[in-house]
């Protein structure tokens, strides 16, 4: 595993631009690619290629015959795929320190996306990104405001997405899932109970 600086808090991550997050969290992103995604099975050259492809300003050519999620843009799909590598820990980990670590890694990967652009360009990818972001935020302390903003965006995006409910849950089902991930006295749980999704 590569050495790296301590990861920042989620509030710091959310406040930065995609390029700032890439520059600041490059070591963590390398670790996500090398360890979480490839399980230390790929040569350095492959890891370097993935890391370069994650750079928001990168002009590196990606394989033309390879599509992203559900036939979508490959470059925008990569951060979502890396975020999904933390899914099992964010969803099921009972050790709070470990859950926080992987929730932050999920947020770091997703922070490389220009969400405002993605929401307009591709509702499917935007929905997948916002869904994963909500899963991460609900496991992190003091993120109720960001969770609320994320879920409001998800409400707006989900009706435009063509994916089935099994691939991208409806807001009501997502609310139910999120409530199972937090303690009843958690501030996020309090907000979630009061949230009434549009659909």
Distance between the termini: 43 Å
Low-pLDDT windows of residues = 1-7
H/E element string?
Answer: HHHHHHHHHHHH
What is Rg?
16 Å
Which band does the percent of strand residues land in?
Answer: under 5%
State the helicity in percent bands: 55-70%
Largest sheet: none
Shape: globular
Class derived from helix and strand content: mainly alpha
**Tally of strands:** 0
The helix tally amounts to: 12
Q: What is the residue-mean pLDDT, rounded to a whole number?
A: 91
Descriptive report:
This protein is mostly helical. It has a domain at 10-141. It is 61% helix and 0% strand. The protein is built from 12 helices and no strands. Helix 7 (96-110) packs antiparallel against helix 9 (123-138). The protein starts with 9 loop residues before the first helix and ends in a 5-residue tail after the last helix.
